[in-house]
């Protein structure tokens, strides 16, 4: 094979028009992700981007937006218990799912109803 995959650069979550401030509160203030500038030629589309480790989360505007109910990003976290406590203090609803061997995890919905999984690999 003459090509190989090296990883994931970014994921994009769809959101409704006018979502940017809610996205900044949730992804920036609540989760603590740093907002990064969108390229100039894409700014007119709306939305916003955040740094997540070596990857990016792009919040993109979708006309006729309907949140994904099953599809979701899985974000690896160091000290998942501290994130859980932080989210609970901010009254974010935690959703439990069946465990997966070797990792601890839970889900939340972003302000637009998209599922997000947070997980930590157990040592």
Could you explain how this protein is built, in words?
This protein has 123 residues and is α/β, with parallel strands linked by helices. Helices cover 17% and strands 31% of the residues. The strands form two sheets. A four-stranded mixed sheet has the order 1-4-3-2, covered by helices on one side. Strands 5-7-6 form a three-stranded mixed sheet, with no helix packed on it. Strand 6 (103-109) and strand 7 form a beta hairpin. The radius of gyration is 15 Å and the shape is globular. The chain starts with 9 loop residues before the first strand and ends with a strand.
Low-confidence stretches: none
Spatial order of strands in the largest sheet: 1-4-3-2
Radius of gyration: 15 Å
Largest sheet: 4 strands, mixed
Structural class of the secondary elements? alpha/beta
Number of helices: 2
Terminal residue distance: 35 Å
**SSE order, one letter for each helix or strand:** EHEEEEHEE
The tally of beta strands, per DSSP, is 7
Put the structure in a nutshell.
With 123 residues, the chain is α/β, with parallel strands linked by helices. Helices cover 17% and strands 31% of the residues. The termini are far apart.
Topology overview:
Layout: E1 10-15, H1 20-30, E2 34-36, E3 48-52, E4 55-61, E5 74-76, H2 80-89, E6 103-109, E7 115-121
Parallel strand pairs: 1-4, 5-7
Antiparallel strand pairs: 2-3, 3-4, 6-7
Kindly list the characteristics that best describe this protein.
31% strand; 123 residues; 7 strands; four-stranded mixed beta sheet; alpha/beta; three-stranded mixed beta sheet
């Amino acid at each position: 094979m003459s090509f190989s995959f090296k990883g994931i650069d970014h994921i994009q979550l769809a959101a409704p028009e006018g979502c940017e401030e809610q996205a900044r509160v949730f992804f920036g203030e609540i989760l603590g992700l740093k907002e990064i500038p969108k390229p100039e030629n894409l700014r007119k589309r709306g939305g916003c981007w955040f740094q997540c480790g070596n990857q990016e989360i792009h919040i993109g505007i979708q006309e006729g937006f309907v949140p994904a109910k099953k599809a979701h990003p899985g974000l690896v976290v160091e000290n998942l218990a501290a994130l859980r406590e932080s989210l609970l203090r901010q009254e974010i609803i935690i959703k439990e799912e069946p465990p997966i061997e070797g990792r601890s995890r839970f889900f939340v919905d972003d302000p637009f109803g998209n599922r997000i999984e947070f997980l930590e690999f157990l040592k």
